[in-house]
Amino acid sequence: MKIAIFSDIHGKILLPFKLVDLYQKETGCKIDFILQCGDMGAYPNIENLDKATIKHAQYDRDELGFHDDFTKENPEIRAFLDELNINMICVRGNHEDHDFLDELEKENPDKSIFPIDIYGRVFVCRSGLEQKLETEDEVLQFVGIGRIGDRKGRSEKRFIQDYERKEIRKLLKTKNTFDVLITHDKDDSQSGYGMTEIRQVLDNIIFQYHFYGHTGEPFKEETDSNCITQSIKIKELEFNESGILEKGCMIILTKEKEELSIEVVEQKLTNKMTKFNWKSQ
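and the corresponding structure tokens:
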């Protein structure tokens, strides 16, 4: 099983699929799923954009990619996604239309993940629930925790909600072990900011890998303070001033014979998809 992992795509919903297609063609290796660490930029209605997205969208229409490309049928995109035949499972970030996502979550009360786009290829997973990805040979067990933490007690929907905390408390009682934890935020043990619930989960449940985004830091791999989990900061999927993607924006997680390993996709591959050509690739 191979899984491509991205974070902070900010409306460029199609780009992870394009990069996976490129990776498969360049390497000959099949990707089974995509995991995404939040800040999808899932805004179906322009009227609901937050201030940061409005600001960036004035200079970069890609910020509105979910609205433009994934809320109404585009035959070319449909054909591309159908041929690729890979789903992307995301956690919520802080830059999403949470009212929209809340409604979809309520419409799918019995599902741990639910689709959010017109093509049925982009899914959001509920925070704190046990999840599985399966191929013929392998099963990957993971947990997602979306949104961000807040040390000031604010309750806006970009911050973790009480019903999600409840699910996390249930998770802590199971004492199960998992392959992967996917979050948008990081924990707050060292920095003084972030989500306390993530720290609780990492200190009480065994995960082999924790992938997160949000912080604006470069790609980073380190051993968590629990001395077990490998903590991976995914670089935001953003084009720099030169129009290229930076190191660590695309990670490949492999599970083979119950063993997990990661590959940081080299820039010589991602450089083939630039700010100026990626939509035509």
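(Above: one complete record from the training split.) The mean pLDDT is 94.
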